[in-house]
Design goal:
Elements (H helix, E strand, L loop, with lengths): L9 E5 L4 E5 L6 H4 L5 E7 L3 E3 L4 E6 L5 E6 L4 E5 L12 E3 L6 E2 L4 E5 L1 H6 L6 E5 L6 E5 L2 E3 L5 E6 L1
Antiparallel strand pairs: 1-14, 2-3, 2-13, 3-11, 4-10, 5-6, 5-9, 6-7, 7-11, 8-10, 12-14
């Protein structure tokens, strides 16, 4: 490590979807809003395209396609959960473009979700994006407001 190298560099998690980022406490599901499995943001999407919020490896794609787990290149586990209770759709309304074990770069397309179909079936399209291994990060900050998928930082942290 060089003399001027900073070990505690601030890292970013980008919005996985375009829309409005809100505090995880505003997500209409007690598991997410209560930070039971992690902390982060919810995205109220205005587009069904879903992009990688970090560069890393796809570690899990739910068989119902409603969620995808990534491990960032620096070891942070990020869960992107598409909508609330959408597991009940059994994959309908979702198209996956990646597979488990695949390396992705931040901003690469991961999935598509049919926002109209999901809303028409009575499900919320709010999509949590959370860090699930909080013990591996410090100084977690979220940035609510308008977000552009693959461009706007919605979470920052240090290792």
């Amino acid at each position: 490590m060089g003399f001027f190298t900073r070990k505690d560099k601030t890292e970013k998690i980008l919005a996985p979807q375009s829309g409005k980022a809100v505090s995880i406490t505003e997500v209409p599901d007690p598991v997410f809003s209560g930070k039971v499995i992690g902390d982060g943001v919810g995205i109220q999407p205005n587009s069904g395209e879903v992009f990688a919020p970090v560069s890393g490896t796809v570690v899990q794609v739910a068989h119902t396609l409603h969620a995808i787990g990534l491990e960032s290149d620096d070891g942070v586990e990020v869960l992107v959960h598409l909508g609330i209770d959408t597991v009940k759709l059994k994959g309908e309304g979702f198209t996956c473009h990646v597979k488990e074990g695949q390396h992705v770069n931040a901003g690469d397309k991961l999935m598509d979700m049919d926002l109209d179909l999901i809303a028409d079936r009575g499900f919320s399209t709010v999509s949590p994006c959370i860090i699930t291994n909080l013990d591996s990060v410090k100084d977690l900050q979220i940035f609510p407001g308008d977000a552009v998928a693959g461009e706007t930082a919605v979470i920052t942290y240090r290792k």
